[in-house]
Amino acid sequence: MVYIACDHGGIELKAAVIAKLKAMGETVKDLGTDSAASVDYPDYGYAVAESVAKEEAARGIVICKTGVGMSICANKVHGIRCALCTSVDMGRLCREHNNANMLALGASNTDVNTALEIVEAFMTTEFAGGRHSNRVDKIMAHEEKYGK
Q1: What are phi and psi of 119, to 5 degrees?
Q2: If both were cysteines, with which of 34, 42, 45, 66 could 70 make a disulfide (CB 3.0 to 4.6 Å apart)?
Q3: Closest CA to 127 of 103, 94, 89
Q4: 18-60, pLDDT tens digit by residue?
């Protein structure tokens, strides 16, 4: 399952990402927003992050104008590792090295074609494990120690 949401600044990119995900055979749950009317991005960022945190194998994608606000919100939810990516390499490495379970995209700073390539890299790359497991474990231990 892939949960996805955006604020008013990401409507068009979200539609393109949903089409891409479906073409890849993914099951997608759209958590909004569905119009260009101004909304508060935290409501949508938290909705996706909380949904992903409840399902071990789920992934999430959040979109706002820059991706910054959504990534900050998502990373406040326990168990979430959300990466704001602006290149295909970042989309691949956030999965391979960081075991990211969420992707944040900026609709105003990433063109549609690049964003779709990032999504594909994020969705098709597996966590490498090995030396990276210890690093991700340290992140998770810190999260447990200090809570979110």
Answers
A1: -60, -45
A2: 45
A3: 94
A4: 999 999 999 999 999 999 999 999 999 999 999 999 998 999 9
**3-class DSSP assignment, residue 138:** helix
List residues bridging with 2 in a β-sheet.
28, 59
Annotated active-site positions, please?
Answer: 64, 97
Using pLDDT thresholds of 50, 70 and 90, give the confidence band for residue 108. very high
Is 143 exposed, middle or buried, given 0-12, 13-18 or 19+ CB atoms closer than 10 A? Answer: middle
Query: Which two structure tokens, joined as six digits, stand for 107?
Result: 């609709």
Reduced 3-state DSSP string for 33-88 = CCCCCCCCHHHHHHHHHHHHHHCCCCEEEEEECCCHHHHHHHCCCCCCCEEECCCH
79: left (phi over 0), alpha (psi -120 to 50) or beta: left
Task: Give dist(CA 5, CA 45) in Å, integer.
Answer: 7
Nearest Cα neighbor of 70 from 36, 98, 32, 112 is 32
3-state helix, strand, coil in the chain (%, to 5): 50, 15, 35
